[in-house]
Amino acid sequence: MPIRPALALTAGAVLTAALAVTGARVTTPALLERFEQDAVAAIAAAGGTPVSPDFRGLGDLASRHPTLSGGEAMDDALREQIARAIAAVPGVGGVRWADSEMKAQGNEPVFAPLHCQDDVNALLKARSIRFDEGRSSIDAGSRQLLDEVAAALRPCLGSIIAITGHTNGTGNEAANLALSQERADAVLAALIARGIPDEGLRSVGVGSARPVIGLLPEDPANRRIEFSVVATVPLQPTPIDTPSAR
To answer: Fewer C-beta within 10 Å: the chain N or C terminus?
Structure first.
């Protein structure tokens, strides 16, 4: 029996979106391997070669928050230097020592999550995340912007960050809807690759249903990615978020 074009298009869109999200998630082991390599390099540079980072959390699940062991005989100044050097590795979360739960408060400020959204909005007001024409491949010129977006979102960790893909009103709406979802998924994958945990990210495509106020539906400026914090949990200084000597 012949497959109706609309049904085939819908099935293809669902499959593509599923593959995009799956592809984003399977990058996590590679990321953690990179985190471990960078952490070992940071330990060596700080003079703490016997120290070992463990990026496995409860239930032996992968975690961005390493537990450090092997520095029991070191003085507090060196332990704190090592912990902060590892915490400074891009994408790595807070650090704790296996032999103690006592932590000193860090020097980094604590931001309200909505402030992060304002920072991202400011970045996207002047520039936009661009894609290859009619495709979900992110343009190479947008990589730096994505780096900046990830940095702006990092203080919002602990919140649910929604990524919404939009198109303009030209072309077939079913195709627009599928493309907007694929592009949102591509941005989600790019943020995961930059150290944003996938459990806090959500992606959705809305096609041309929500044009920018004041623009005609077919205006190219409606092709955009938007971010919003849909549930907020402000970060507080904790043993994991504030690495110190012990």
So the answer is: N
Q: Is the pTM of this model over 0.90?
A: no
Domain with CATH 3.30.1340 in the chain: 29-97
- Pair of tokens at residue 124: 């996207």
**Ranges in the chain, pLDDT < 50:** 1, 3, 5-27, 58-59, 101-113, 233-241
Beta strands in the chain (DSSP E): 52-56, 62-69, 96-97, 160-166, 201-205, 224-231
Tell me the C-alpha distance between 227 and 164, whole Å.
6
| 29-97 has CATH 3.30.1340 classification | yes
Per-residue pLDDT at 108: 40
Which part of the chain has CATH 3.30.1330.60? 13-24+110-231
Tell the residue number behind the tokens 């590795």, with chain if given.
89
The whole-angstrom separation of Cα 120 and Cα 54 is: 32
| Per-residue pLDDT, 83 | 85
For domain 13-24+110-231, the CATH architecture is: 2-Layer Sandwich (3.30)
Residue keyed to tokens 């537990």: 67
Report d(CA 95, CA 87) in Å as an integer.
Answer: 6
Which DSSP state fits 140? G
Structural contact between residues 134 and 176, judged by C-beta atoms closer than 8 angstroms: no
